[in-house]
Design a protein that fits this description.
- The chain is built from 10 helices and no strands.
- By secondary structure, it is mainly α.
Length: 273
C-alpha cells in the first residue's frame, strides 16, 4: 500500500513540476510576463486560489491557462490527496508495528530469551557479545546504534556438539505452538527483522525434530546443525537489541524488567535492589 502511494506521489509531483515549468515558459512567451509573475500566476491557478490580479489577455495565453487548469489542478488535488493518504498510512503502520512489537515481546518472553541463554553460555566469544549488550537505562540512541554496529562484525561460532541438543529439541517442541501462532498473524510480514528470525527458529525446530536421536551424529550433520543454530543466534541477537530499543523508547516499565532479566548479563536479577 505504501509503495503504491509513493508511486502516485512521484507521478503527480513530476507532472506538476512539468506543468509549472511549461506554464511559466508559456506565460513569459505569450503574455510577456516576468519569471516571478509567471510563476505566481501558475501557482495561483493550480492551487485554485485565483486572485485575478494577473490574467491572460492573448488567445494563446488563455488556451495555456485552460491546459494548466485541466492538468495542473487535477495533479495538485491528487498530490494533496496522496500526501494525506501517506500520512494516514504511516500513522496506521506505526500503530500496527507497535502491536506487532507486543508479539515480539511474547516471543522473547516465551522462547527468545531462553534460546539466548542457552546459546550465549556456549558462545566462545560470549564476553564480546555481553560487553556490547549489557543494556542500561542510561543508554541513548547512539549507544544502541554503536552496539548494533559492533554486532554486525561479530561472527557467531557456536558448535552444535557443545550444546544440549536433546534439551534444545524439547524446549523448541514445547513452544512450537507459540511459533505457529505467531506465524498465523498476518502482520508479522511487516517486521522485516522478526520474520526471518521466526522462520529460522521454526526451521531449527523442524531440523531437530526430524532426527531420531541427537547425540551420535556424523560430523557433517553436526556442522549442518551448527549453521542453523548460528543463523538463529545471529538473528536473535540483532532482533533482541532492536526490541530493547523499542521498549526503552515507548515502554519504560517493560524495559526495566527486560533490562533486569537481560539474558546476556550473568548478574541479572528481576529483584529490584
Amino acid at each position: 500500500m505504501t509503495k503504491t502511494i509513493h508511486l502516485r506521489l512521484r507521478i503527480y509531483l513530476s507532472i506538476l513540476i512539468v506543468v509549472i515549468l511549461v506554464g511559466m515558459f508559456g506565460m513569459m512567451t505569450f503574455e510577456n510576463r516576468t519569471p516571478l509573475d509567471a510563476f505566481y500566476f501558475v501557482v495561483v491557478t493550480i492551487s485554485t486560489v485565483g486572485f485575478g490580479d494577473i490574467h491572460p489577455v492573448t488567445d494563446a495565453g488563455k488556451l495555456l491557462t485552460i491546459g494548466i487548469i485541466l492538468v495542473g489542478v487535477g495533479c495538485f488535488v491528487g498530490l494533496a490527496a496522496s500526501s494525506l493518504d501517506l500520512m494516514i498510512e504511516n500513522r496506521e503502520r506505526s500503530v500496527r508495528l507497535r502491536n506487532l512489537n507486543l508479539l515480539v515481546g511474547v516471543f522473547f518472553s516465551e522462547v527468545g530469551n531462553g534460546l539466548l541463554r542457552r546459546f550465549s553460555e556456549k558462545d566462545p566469544k560470549s564476553d564480546q557479545v555481553r560487553s556490547a549488550l549489557v543494556v542500561s537505562d542510561r543508554w541513548t540512541e547512539e549507544d544502541f546504534s554503536r552496539a548494533s554496529g559492533n554486532l554486525q562484525h561479530h561472527r557467531n561460532m557456536l558448535d552444535s556438539r557443545t550444546l544440549d541438543l536433546p534439551g534444545l529439541d524439547r524446549f523448541l517442541r514445547e513452544h512450537k505452538s507459540i511459533l505457529l501462532t505467531l506465524f498465523e498473524n498476518s502482520q508479522i510480514i511487516e517486521n522485516e527483522g522478526f520474520t526471518p528470525l521466526l522462520q529460522a527458529v521454526f526451521h531449527l525446530t523442524e531440523e531437530l525434530a526430524a532426527r531420531d536421536q541427537l547425540t551420535d551424529l556424523p560430523a557433517s550433520d553436526f556442522a549442518h546443525l551448527s549453521g542453523d543454530i548460528n543463523r538463529v543466534y545471529g538473528l536473535l541477537i540483532m532482533e533482541w537489541l532492536t526490541y530493547m530499543r523499542h521498549l526503552k523508547m515507548h515502554y519504560p516499565y517493560l524495559f526495566s524488567l527486560a533490562m533486569r532479566t537481560n539474558p546476556f548479563d550473568a548478574h541479572a536479577s528481576a529483584v529490584v535492589r
